[in-house]
Amino acid sequence: MAPITEVEGRRLTLSNLDKVIYPASGFTKGELLHYYATTAGPLLAHLYNRPVSFLRYPDGPDGQRFFAKNVPPGTPTWVKTAQVPHSQGPARQILVQDLASLMWAANLVTEFHTPQWQADAPGRADRLVFDLDPGAPADVVQCCEVAVWLRERLAADGLHAYAKTSGSKGLHLLTPLEPTPSEQVSAYAKALAQEAEADLPGLVVHRMARKLRPGKVFVDHSQNAAAKTTATPYTLRARPEPTVSAPVTWAEVESCTDARELVFLADAIAPRLERYGDLLGPLINLNRAGRIP
């Protein structure tokens, strides 16, 4: 029988705690839930008031995966939701606002993905994002080179950039903004991606076509579109091992010479939070929010 626990006054059924989710490391569902519980502070801050899309992988990264935006059947009535515009008409999505909701969602075995805008201002982005995706044989080392170029270019426009690993192969760059229409942010991000390609033609490509990407870094600007989402800071990823989309310092980015230096597993995050705090805190407090030209 699945154990029932109480979280902040809410009764939750947490199932299959001994089930191995990440076979390469023997990481179990119980360990996954423990990770989300102990990382709840910063994770909830980045999830707060943002409609969540789930990438679920209940049988591990090698099993079936499915992306879900709508409220799942059986969602407890106390889990908050928000009406969100979609191309087919408005729909409701989950808001993970508290620890109980986080543990309920984590029990589904999921990656968390969120848009660049908040539920009460859909389509008005308060952050800009670049997803730096390397095409083999390029890897995160080349992504770091591009990230530094983009940081300096954004700084020239008065914008502050922060970095995190994607938890997969590349890097994400994020910049806090005064709320701005997503269309305007998308156009600005695309222009910068094109500028990066012009300035670093042997290293950068701004178009998605696979044939253009071997050995280069794809500067994906498309996640600034209102309909798109990005892996939330501190989410686990459906990879062979329990890798995390982890904030990194610019010193780590600048000094990276081996892709393994920027791979962070679940057990590395608590020590990093103790050492650095939340490196992406300015995205929440918006104390360094800028305005795109």
TrEMBL record:
InterPro entries attached to this UniProt entry? LigD_pol_dom, MtLigD_Pol-like, NHEJ_LigD
Annotated GO molecular function terms are: ligase activity
Which intervals hold domain DNA ligase D polymerase?
Answer: 28-279
Keyword Repeat assigned to the entry: answer is no
Q: Which UniProt keywords apply?
A: Ligase
Looking up NCBIfam families in the UniProt record yields: ligD_pol (TIGR02778)
Q: Which PANTHER family match?
A: BIFUNCTIONAL NON-HOMOLOGOUS END JOINING PROTEIN LIGD
Name the UniProt record assigns to this protein: ATP-dependent DNA ligase
**Species whose genome carries this gene:** Streptomyces xanthii
